[in-house]
Amino acid sequence: MIKLHKYKPLWGLADPSPFAIKAMVLFKMAGVSYEEEFVDWEVAPRHKMPYVTTGNGEIIGDTSFIKNYLENEHSVDFTGGYDAKTLAIGFMAEKMCENHLYWIEISYRWGVAENFNKGPRHFFDDAPEAIREKIANEMFEKSKMARFAHGIGRFNYDEITEFGKQDVDALSNLLGDNNFILGNDICGFDAMVFAMLWGVSTDYFDSPLNDYVKSKTNLKNYLKRMKELYFPDFA
Description:
The protein is mainly alpha-helical and 235 residues long. It contains nine helices and four strands; from the N terminus they run E-H-E-E-E-H-H-H-H-H-H-H-H. A four-stranded mixed β-sheet has the order 2-1-3-4, with helices on one face.
C-alpha cells in the first residue's frame, strides 16, 4: 500500500499544509488508494512534507514529483483534456499559489502573534516543557527570517494584504463561470488552487483574506464543489 506522509486535520482543514492537501486531492483524482501516515522528519526528503512511500519502499518528496509518479507509474492523466496553452495557464496559476499566495498565508499564520499563538505554536507542544517556549520562539523568528529572505517579509501587512487580494482576484477571474479552474473539466492544477484557497479562507485565523475569498461568489462555490467531491466531511 502507498503511504502518504503528512500531518493531520487541523484548523478546519484536512491538513495545515496546502501541499499535503494538494497531494491528497491528486491521489483522489487518480483513484489510487493510499494510507495516511504521520510525517517522519528524519526521513522526509529535504525535511519537507508531504512525501510518499511506495509499495517497494521508494520515497518521493515534493508534490510535483508525487504528481509525476502518479502519471508515470499509475497511468493517470491530469490534463483534463486541455490543450498545451491552456495547461500552461494552469501551471502558472499553480505556481502563483505555491510561491506567492502561500507566503502571504504563512505571513498571517506565523507572523501575526495572535495567530501564531493559537496555531503554529502548538506544533511544539510535545517538546520538553523546559525548552518548549524557547523552541517555539526560535521557530517564530526563523519564519520571520524566511519570509524576509523570500521578499514578502519586507512589506507591511497592508501591502501584503493587497498582494493577496491581487492573487485572489486573478484566480477568481481565471475561474470565471467555469466549474473548475481551467474550464468545466477538472485537471491536476485544481489540486493546488483548491488547497491554497481553502487554507487562505479558513475561519480559524484572523486574516482579511478570509472574507475576501468568500466575497467572490465563484470562488466560494468552487470551494464548496471541491469539498463535496473530495472532502465531504468538510463540505
